[in-house]
Amino acid sequence: MCSIVSVRCSSGGAFAGLAMMTMMLALLLTTTIVSGDNQIELTEQLPTVMVAVLVRNKAHTLPYFFSYLEDLDYPKDRMSLWIRSDHNEDRSIEITKAWLKRTSSLYHSVDFKYRSERGKRESEKTSTHWNEERFSDVIRLKQDALQAARMMWADYIFFIDADVFLTNSNTLGKLIDRKLPIVAPMLVSDGLYSNFWCGMTSDYYYQRTDDYKKILNYDQIGQWPVPMVHTAVLVSLNIAQTRQLTFERKNLPAGRYDGPVDDIIIFAMSANYSGIPMYVCNELLYGYIMVPLEAGETVPGKDLEQLTNVLSYIVNEYGALSLKQDLSRFVADVPKDKLSLSHIYMINLERRTERRTKMLKHFDLLGLDVEHFPAVDGKQLSDKKVYDMGIRFLPGYADPFHKRPMTMGEIGCFLSHYNIWERMVRLNQQEVLVLEDDIRFEPFFRRRAYGVLADARRIGGWDLIYFGRKRLQEEDEKWIDGSEYLVKAGYSYWTLGYVITLEGAKKLLREQPLSKLLPVDEYLPIMFDNHPNDSWTSHFRDRTLSAWSAAPLLLYPTHYTGDEGYISDTEDSLRIDGTLPAVGGPSKGSSGMVSNDTRDGGQGQASQEPKKGDKEQLPNAPALLSESGIGQGEHDLETKNRRSEL
Question: Which residues contact 332 (CB under 8 A, 6 or more apart)?
Answer without folding.
Answer: none
